[in-house]
Design goal:
- The protein has about 475 residues and is an alpha/beta fold.
- The protein folds into 2 domains: about 90 residues, no CATH class; about 350 residues, 3-Layer(aba) Sandwich (Alkaline Phosphatase, subunit A), CATH 3.40.720.
- Helix content is about 35%, strand content about 15%.
- The chain has 12 helices and 17 strands.
- β2 and β3 form a beta hairpin.
- The longest helix has 29 residues.
Length: about 475
Amino acid sequence: MNESKKSPKVSGVAAGGLLAAKDERDRRRLARRVFLSALGTGLSLPLAYSSARLAVAQTTPRPRRLFLYYLPHGVPAEHFDPTESGGSFDFDLAGQGVLGPLLPYAKQTTVLRGISMNGASNHAAIRTILTGNADGAGSDSIDGLIAAQLMTTPYVLGAVPYAKGSGFTSDSFLVKHGSWVLPEEDPSRAADALFQSLGTASGAPNPAVQFRAAALSLTEKELTRLQAATKDLTDEQTKLGIHLDAIRQLKESGTTNAAMPVSCNTRPDLPTLAALSGADVLDPAQLGKVLDAQLEVAAHALLCGTASVITLQNMYVNADLNMGFAGGPGVPKGHHEPVSHSWDGPGRTEFALVQRWFYGRLAEKLLATLNQTDPQDPEHTVLDNSLVAVLSEVSDGANHNSDSEPVWIGGVETPTSLPLVLIGGAGGYLKPAGGILKVSALHTDLLATFAEAMGASVTSMGSVSSMKPLTELKA
């Protein structure tokens, strides 16, 4: 008796292998179709090849960077909060607003109102702002916790002139990575650490960036024909369609001459750092030049992806540096006394100008550099893929509080809270607010938000057993 023929059983592993092989054949067919279609439109051979590669490239998560910018002693509250009028926000406040330099980035800037510090209300709060605990007890700082989960290095830079052996005290440390970390005060040494991986790369160009540069010259007809070659695939399956949409939007907006990213294959040219050569980085008169150089180094490290977590500390608690140095805010008085503790109107205006200067350096030396095409993600800028957070351990400089409470200024009740400012998009994580966000919370929940925005999870720090990201900030 003849037995009926039966199909052989295929194991799950074998079936998976067959599906993978079929998928690879489909990808090759698609690549060939796109390649021939691109040639048919008259595209050059390299551009046709790049198109074919992008058509079958797997999508990847957007890169994300975190930059923490610490500025001591808070702000004069009446010169800080943007004023709202007709649905828009005035950051400049007649040239006296602390946040005036952020005006070009207003649509990417969120000013938080209502945040109080967890467990500290004095100068030791500097040790709390990033560890979440009074005097930093029981936990590393948030940058270290995030970097550990991302398996990367948290870099700590500083513009912190002081007399060695006397300037920095136990209350002056901002971050804790196992033990308290003194920020790297020399921008040259910072650059050596941050760019040590450059100069040894193969030099192979980023195909997505290479394609973007060449595709900007395509006509609308060529764009349409090339995009038609991938009509069978969704955006989740192909990068080519995404790139072509981005190219079309660039051409329609008239911004085709937007800055292209640097190669990042070798150590970048850093003119501000070069101009600092030979200077004493601990000389208070050099504060402006040191800060500019540190920001330049940090900006290019984030741009080129040699670092994804950087903290920059400006000065230190009780730093009474004279603000009359060359290139500075033009206030020849001590930052701590009398500037930050001024109660009278003229003194508080001077304090606003000083803090505004620090924001100006951030905007010019860091934000402007990050506001260009991301070498790792040509559809967005580096700033779109970054979270730049400006923070202080004090709410109002004169009142010296670290919580959300009203202060009487010139007979007027003025609300205060920790002056916290977020700039950028964090790779699509942050809601594009562009103004003021009122939220009543402890700052530890904001630290949890930093972690989640970077793709990490921090739900407790030391004695703080329950931390939740601020949903109000999420897109």
